[in-house]
């Protein structure tokens, strides 16, 4: 009875460490909580986070993934074929997708409520995904394709500790015990890449009475640069030696025991295929004994590197597909360590090793073309990676060998894409679209309503070296209210997703009970298509001068006022009278010059000069009037100031 | 200069022709003071027309920059406010006193009880009760009733209760018997006074109380006691008068309460305790939630949290051999940094969340005891925080740390302990509502035993709560609407959506309905509609559109329109003024000439 209850809710914590070719270290934390229906339905929980199960029940979420990422996964040097990059490399910012178990017409409402809830739960502006212009409904190109899927990204969301803390709250031990102790904020956020992910699946719905439950997977992937001072000192001459590292040197902390609530608590060290092949090669060169293959017993004792702790188990990948080599996985059980004897795995390289990570068949990148604020073009370029040539050649014998590539791209409405301008280049040669694109689904954007979605299946020949897709667009005009506060920075186009449905990122280890027990390893064994994200693009749009409306108002008003005033003046002008007045005035001119002139003329005419009638009086009168006017204006100004302040 | 002279020269002949005939004939004609022709009205008329059309345009402009404000029923809000303030809400209550084995006049007894009731009753400034009393004296086969026509006394069948019913010692059975006799359609509070051997005074869990008195009892003393039980227990719920707690109801604006139960393992490295919450939920809590149905819609959820130390320290007491947490540190017990109790996603809206926490101390602070202000150790080992919830410290048996065993093996809190704990929780819950959990009511005239209900709240307590709830809701609705109307009236440039107007109207309607239901004694529906009124009032007050005060301020309006209206109005105004002045001057000239010519001729 007790045991059965215990099995209903489970928690597992795992950490995978992997040296990367460019002297960095990948750390991948994997926490998995699961609850069965019977416990999750009543609202009573023992281990599983209450908030998540309430969320699943309230919005009837079938599957959901939320990721917060900072930095960009470097597909070229960190690899793109393993299960880790293909399911954990995420676009920068926030990405959210969810599949709902509700009728079609309720999906949008559920999505909007879900975004608000998540935004409260994770202290992020996920609520911006509420508006219909920011999310889309991919039909078939996004891997968990289903009609009830909604997908949205916020490329510019800044990710920091305020998002990590609520994420940690969902773990039963938070960062108080177990592997999560390593999550030292300064060292994590110092890294080159940081992606925090939450993936949940609920199987079956309560109403149908099926056996069901919720599985919550929380992963945190970080790429860190170990401090290589010590190694640098020892091998000053050796530039290629990989830095030696330990948990303390990369995280500044060590694991002092398990989270007591975790069913299993393991740390893995993964050496990927390229590295193992390289090590084997070096080993053979040195030994010359040419022992065929290696076994789990002898491999880790090889003198190329040294581990501070003895692994509890060694898994070697079953190498059926790839001739390159098999990855090796060392397992360390944290249970064996305690506070007095903390677990601090360290890896010391003895000989320089250079290797390359396994790449996805094509390396995808995306860029903008064109200049100016009017139009441009988006180009997606796919370049063949040399590494994958080998296994592609395996089935390239027959002529009709095709490489299938799925492209999914969402474009905001203000980037108005002309789908007819789609061009395809294969090996720098323009090709007819119908030859390459097998299937295409386009839902054009609607201004201020929905973004444009483009889903494509490309069939490229296996021997392809490079392929490119270009599509032209016009930049739209936004309403003045729709500009963000920093409009001059530009507008982001979310990453496109390139997936290769014929290639599966999976690592199959020797069938063993312990492999199935570990959620991380069983995740590795799942056949998921290889996926990669392109860069997010930054499109500069014409930014208006935001004081423009006022300027326009002022200028038009002034013009109107001038027109009005002059028209009125013309209407009420008495030309004859004015001229008479002018003449009189001219006659009475009181200037000194005119006085002199009149005197002069009088002398010339030989007549007695008469002084003008009232020059002094008039001049004083004018002065008084002027002073009065100035005082009036000043008084008005003072009154105005007083009244409004 | 040359231009002027040019024009002068060119226009001279033209000008000369227009100038009125030079006054050669009339030597004293001064063109500066007189004129022969009538001054023209053409230009004056023109400028005045422009000025008037300009002025006429202003109302249109005013209309066009007007912002939308849904008309709110300000007068009705005010009348609701004044109505609730001046004439207090009256809840009709029916009391029924039944005397068995007494030989006296029901009218006289009734008068004496009534006078006692008025003595005991203290006027609640907000809501009061309008009570009627009927008295029956039962002689066995026949009885005397007063008032004779009262439907409450008629519903009682004479002789259905006899003194022998009270001889037995089983109070619960007596209570059930009374319930079966009195359970009519009307809700009345009845007190039965019986002559018997032993003296006893019990309040049942329904709406009945009984009193067995000895032979020598005076009618007056009985009347005092009856009046007290009616007023203090049935009407006021046995609570102290004027305590602040009575004002507050821990019920959310939408009439919902979420009871969130948390089991906190301070340090799971020492031990991990789990509970079988489902059994408790199905058993103890479900009946209580059912009983409180008329007052609030209650939902329950639970979670277990780990690594949740308390925020303050306890000290070791050698004599008690335990860690003692003193009363003055109690505000620092709840550690809001580490206890992520969380609000509930399922609740949403404005539900009230009450947190109930079971705290399992870590090994180094076990056993942990809470100390009362007087230095004694708390019996329940728990405390409440009003409007927040309650905390209970539960110490594991023996506080033995099983360092060898894996703590994950998981302990379970024994069912007996769990039940005790939840009884304390129910007590705390009652306390949050303002009820005491002692089963004795000590009044001025004597002691009454209170029969506890297995449902947590007795029927008469729920009645008290629902009356109080209705009263509280109506007042809070009225004050919310009142502040809304004041706010709206003080900000004339605030946009008010139609939706707010609709909500206000519905809220007023619901409040009216609640008032009328309350005065006719239908507590359940009046509580429901008062809840609706309050939640609608809050909805309208917290409507998102009201939060953003219109940006279309007066300054904005001025900035946009002044570049046009200021210069144009200056032009027009000056022109009109000049024309008017000129016309007056010219007219004066003309009149002067006319007068002169008249005198001349």
Automatic annotation (TrEMBL), chain A:
A biological process term (GO) from this entry: attachment of GPI anchor to protein
InterPro entries (UniProt xref): PIG-T
Superkingdom assignment: Eukaryota
Spans traversing the lipid bilayer: 550-571, 626-644
Pfam families (UniProt xref): Gpi16
Organism: Durio zibethinus (Durian)
Protein name: GPI transamidase component PIG-T-like isoform X2
Keyword Transmembrane appears in the UniProt entry: yes
Keywords tagged on the record: Membrane, Transmembrane, Transmembrane helix
GN (gene name): LOC111305420
The keyword NAD appears for this protein: no
GO cellular component entries: GPI-anchor transamidase complex
From TrEMBL, chain B:
Pfam families named in the record: PIG-S
Swiss-Prot/TrEMBL keywords: Endoplasmic reticulum, Glycoprotein, GPI-anchor biosynthesis, Membrane, Transmembrane, Transmembrane helix
Subcellular location: Endoplasmic reticulum membrane
Stretches that traverse the bilayer: 44-62
A GO cellular component annotation in the UniProt record: GPI-anchor transamidase complex
InterPro entries per UniProt: PtdIno-glycan_biosynth_class_S
Membrane topology, from the record: Multi-pass membrane protein
GO biological process, one term: GPI anchor biosynthetic process
Biological pathway: Glycolipid biosynthesis; glycosylphosphatidylinositol-anchor biosynthesis
Residue segments, region Disordered: 1-32
Family: Belongs to the PIGS family.
Stated name of the protein: GPI transamidase component PIG-S-like
Organism annotation: Durio zibethinus (Durian)
